[in-house]
Structures are given as C-alpha cells and as structure tokens.
Specification:
This protein is α/β, with parallel strands linked by helices. It has one domain (8-130): P-loop containing nucleotide triphosphate hydrolases (Rossmann fold, 3-Layer(aba) Sandwich), CATH 3.40.50.300. The chain has helices at 10-23, 40-50, 138-147, and strands at residues 2-7, 28-34, 65-68, 74-78, 100-104, 118-125, 128-134. Helix 1 crosses helix 2 (40-50) and helix 1 (10-23) packs across helix 3 (138-147). The longest helix has 14 residues, at 10-23.
C-alpha cells in the first residue's frame, strides 16, 4: 500500500521526518530513493530529530556511513557510490544493531535489504516534492498511518 504526501518546503520535509523518527523502534530500516537534491538528507535530518539526535546530520556520500546517537542510534548510509552490493562493506550488520538504519539510494543494494522496511520515494518538481511511503510490514504500515494524520 502506498501513501502520498505533497511537501512544499524543507521545513515540511523535516517535520514529516521527525514524525517518522518519533515512531521508530530498534532494528527498523528505512530505505530512500529519489533524484539528487530531492530531499533524502533533509528527511533524514527530521528522522534524527525524532530520535532525539541534536548533532548536525549531513550526507555520508564519501564515507558511506555516519552514526549518530540519540534515543536510538541512527545508522545513516548513503550507498550511491556502491556499484557491487556484494562487496564486503558489512552494512548488513547495522540492520540488527538495535538502532535505526536510514539508507539513501537504497536501490543500489536492494539484494542486501530485508523485506520488512519502510520505503520512501521522493520526487521533485520545481519547489514541490512528492513523498511516497510504502511497506508490506504491519509495523511500518502503522507508522505510516500515524504520520498521515
């Protein structure tokens, strides 16, 4: 099931991310896909706020992974540069490390991803963003329904 939200400002994107972050539990995985500049990192900043993280969150494009500490640890991954998901980056170990994984450009490592996850797709058209939230898992669907209120 898919839920669509129109976002008009970066503040709205952060607010949506914060609502999601407030609902997250240990070992939850969020995958994000969208063009460059669509708002994936902005959404992650909001998720971090919802997890009580006060550090500055920025894209880990060149390091692949950044870890932030809050109510739950946030494992923020940017896998844009990974061309072979079977290369041994050991990213899967973070999927069950009692924190939350947010994976930007997740389609790059789709072979490694568990089935149960919250999928976020972001499309931009000028200043507006279309955010599509989806999952097949009841745990994630309940989060989606709570943030859609």
């Amino acid at each position: 099931m898919q839920y669509k939200i129109e976002i008009k400002t970066p503040e709205e994107m952060i607010s949506l991310g914060k609502k999601i972050g407030e609902q997250l539990k240990p070992n939850m995985i969020i995958t994000m896909n969208g063009d460059l500049g669509s708002g994936k990192t902005t959404m992650t900043k909001g998720i971090a706020l919802g997890l009580g993280i006060m550090q500055i969150v920025n894209s880990p494009t060149f390091t692949i992974l950044k870890i932030y500490h809050g109510r739950l640890d946030l494992y923020h991954m940017d896998v844009y540069r990974i061309t072979n998901p079977m290369d041994d980056f050991e990213l899967e170990e973070y999927f069950e490390a009692n924190g939350v994984c947010v994976i930007e450009w997740a389609e790059q490592i789709k072979e490694l991803l568990p089935t149960d996850r919250l999928n976020i797709e972001i499309y931009h058209d000028g200043n507006k963003r279309q955010v599509i939230l989806s999952s097949t898992s009841n745990d994630y669907l309940s989060i989606i329904k709570k943030v859609m209120i």
